[in-house]
């Protein structure tokens, strides 16, 4: 079973440190300093601690949920001089395939800092104002999705949502029926402007939104788009079918095929 590192971090699970420090003999070398990050949104990496490696693979952790009975991990000393940035510093990084650690200074020294949160991410108490009241612009949504309350709420439901181009008045209606609910769909929109996995056209997924991003760039989305929820459904097969059916209904009501960004 694949583990969600952000949930482990948020729940203060004892096995979190063994997991992030179980990077293999070739990666953990004695006297090395390792900076640890977890992905909270697509391409957004949260700093969760700095450690000095005292000895590699000296300790054994146990995870009752994962498929591994034992997790060998490094014995470390946490470097508390970096605590002020733990849970606050977020970096913008697109991870390379099968690459989970980096030592090349040309890479490490050029990873851009995206944001330093005013308080640690787990201390954010922003509450969802009720699904029916969610209507936020791009920048606000990006900020709110660093809150555990928002992540938990949006990942708990399927739904039909409305995206509005506030510059032109055009709309896009979509549905979220994946494992991550509305959360994962919106996280992808924030990162790319459209979701390549969303089946919106037999010719090209999200063709309308994709064309907009290709022609005007993601900055257009950042400055002009807002997001709202039309309906929510339970995360089961019946809810999935209802969401897909109601997506078509709302496309008809909003006439987004004729006047908006929908292409199907």
From TrEMBL:
Domain GIY-YIG, residue spans: 156-263
InterPro entries in alphabetical order: GIY-YIG_endonuc, GIY-YIG_endonuc_sf
PROSITE patterns: GIY_YIG
Stored CDD domains: GIY-YIG_unchar_1 (cd10446)
Protein name according to UniProt: GIY-YIG domain-containing protein
Record organism: Weissella confusa
